[in-house]
Amino acid sequence: MSNIVSAAAYLPSHRLNRKSALAGGRGTRSVAAFDEDSTSMAAEAARSALADLPLSPDQLLFATTSPAYADRTNASVVHAAALLSDECAAYDFVGAVRSTCAALRGALDAAAAGRSSVVVASDIRVGLPGSADESDGGDGSAALVVAPQSDDHLAEVVAVAARTSEIFDRWRPPLEPYSRVWEERFGETAYAPLAAAALQDALGRAGVTAADVDHLIVTGLQARAVRAARAASGVEPSAYADDRSASLGVTGAAHPLLLLTDVLQRAEPGATIVLLVLADGADCFVLRAGNLAGTSHRGPVIADAHDGPSADYLDMLTWRGVLPRATPRRPDPDRPAAPPSLRNSEWKFGFVGSRCLECETRHLPPERICLNCRALDRMAPEPLQSVRGTITTFTVDHLAFSIAPPVLVAVVDLDGGGRFQCELTDADAGSIAVGDRVEFTFRRFYTTADGVHDYFWKARPARAEKG
Amino acid sequence: MASNGIRDRVAIVGMGCTTFGEHWDRGVDDLLVDASTQALESASATSDGVDAYWLGTMGSGISGLTLSRPLKLDYKPVSRNENYCATGSDAFRNACYAVASGAYDTAMAIGAEKLKDSGYSGLVTASAAHDGTKVPLTGPSMFSLLSPAYAHRYGLDAATMGDVQARIAWKNHYNGARNPRAQFQKEVSIEKIKASPRVSGSLGVYDCSGVSDGAAAAIIVRAEDAYRYTDRPLFVKALSFVAGPASGPMDSGYDYTTFEEVVRSSAEAYRQAGITDPRAELALAEVHDCFTPTELILMEDLGFVERGQAWKDVLAGAFDLDGDLPVNPDGGLKSFGHPIGASGLRMLFECWLQLRGEAPADRRLATVEAGRTLGLTHNLGGQPGACVSFVSIVGSEPAS
Question: What is the predicted ipTM?
Answer without folding.
Answer: 0.92
